[in-house]
Each structure stands twice: as structure tokens, then as C-alpha cells.
Write a structure and sequence with these properties.
RmlC-like_jellyroll; five-stranded antiparallel beta sheet; six-stranded antiparallel beta sheet; Jelly Rolls; RmlC_Cupin_sf; about 0% helix; globular; Uncharacterised_HutD/Ves; about 180 residues; 2 domains; mainly beta
Length: about 180
């Protein structure tokens, strides 16, 4: 399934401090298993708290920010995924102006998530059967099954590995989510 950035709906942050664009999520009667979203961060401030969820945040536009939490500071630079406890009180300081970030949140009691950045043109296969596999285009273009993806677009595959082509000078974020037994 492909999610186009232009089709995403803006919604207020849980803490009321900004706007997010939800891309996709999986939940059941016990709560959120995982969620993907993008957020614009225009100033320093506190993150919303999501008890029981782990977050992996990746700056996809702008210079970056420093996350201040109980375990110390994390430098969130451009296209560098950082992992932290979504239930912890975290504040952010922008390093050089506004940014946009891509967020993965997941319940570590029920699944495990990983994120990595790709910068080399080529053909890729991410994940395996039984996993949720995600491609998000940070810069340039990519294609999935002959469909072009532009900056801000996201492809998700839940039934098999995700195969895609990354164009020259493109930057992409890949995510795999694996259920725990």
C-alpha cells in the first residue's frame, strides 16, 4: 500500500504543541501495536508521552535537534534514526530552525522495530514474510512495483518482503516490524 504525503491529514499532537500527519497504524483491543507519522517541529518543547511504546525518530527535513531525556541527550541529525522510550519525559531543542521528523512508535512487549537509512541507488529487498516492511522517501525518488514514490511518500507491505528501487541521489528510511511470539 502506498501513502502519498499530499493525502495525509493534519491532526493536533497529543500534548497540543503541534501538528502531526498520521500515515498508518495497527491496533487491537489492547492498544497500539505500531504507528507511523510525520510531524513538523517549529520550536523547542516537550514531546507527547506514550507509555508502553518505544519511539524511533528520524529527522527528514532540516538540520536536526537534541532530545533531552532521563537517560541523557540524543543528537537527532538529518536522516539518523534515534531510539528512545516513548513513556519518558523528553524535550527537544532545535539545532538550526524548524524540522520535519518521521516517527515510528511500537509496543515492545508485542513487537520489535528497526529503522535504517539508505543512501545508495539500487534495488533492495527489506524484511521477510510475517513482518511489516516500510519504505519512506526522504529525498529523491524510489519505485515500488512500478509505482513512483516522491519525497514524503511511504510504502508499506505486510504480507511479504518489500522490494523497491532507489534512484541516484535518493535518501530513504526503511523500517521492519516483527511480532514477538
Amino acid at each position: 500500500m502506498i501513502f502519498r504525503q499530499c493525502d495525509l491529514v493534519e491532526t493536533p499532537w497529543k500534548n497540543g504543541g503541534g501538528i502531526t500527519r498520521n500515515i498508518a497504524k495497527e491496533q487491537d483491543k489492547t492498544g497500539t501495536l505500531w504507528r507511523l507519522s510525520m510531524a513538523d517541529v517549529d520550536g523547542d518543547g516537550a514531546f507527547s508521552i506514550f507509555p508502553g511504546l518505544t519511539r524511533i525518530l528520524t529527522v527528514i527535513q532540516g538540520d536536526g535537534m537534541v532530545l533531552h531525556g532521563p537517560d541523557g541527550d540524543l543528537q537527532a541529525g538529518y536522516a539518523q534514526p534515534v531510539r528512545f522510550d516513548g513513556g519518558a519525559p523528553v524535550t527537544a531543542t532545535l539545532t538550526q530552525g524548524p524540522i520535519r521528523d518521521f516517527n515510528l512508535m511500537f509496543d515492545t512487549a508485542r513487537c520489535e522495530g528497526d529503522a535504517q537509512t539508505l543512501r545508495d541507488a539500487g534495488t533492495y529487498k527489506v524484511g521477510q514474510a510475517g513482518q511489516t516492511c516500510v519504505l519512506h522517501v526522504i529525498a529523491g525518488t524510489a519505485s515500488v512495483e512500478g509505482k513512483a514514490l516522491d519525497v514524503g511518500d511511504t510504502a508499506i507491505r505486510t504480507d511479504a518482503p518489500l522490494r523497491f528501487d532507489l534512484a541516484q541521489d535518493a535518501v530513504a528510511l526503511t523500517i521492519t516490524l516483527r511480532p514477538k511470539d
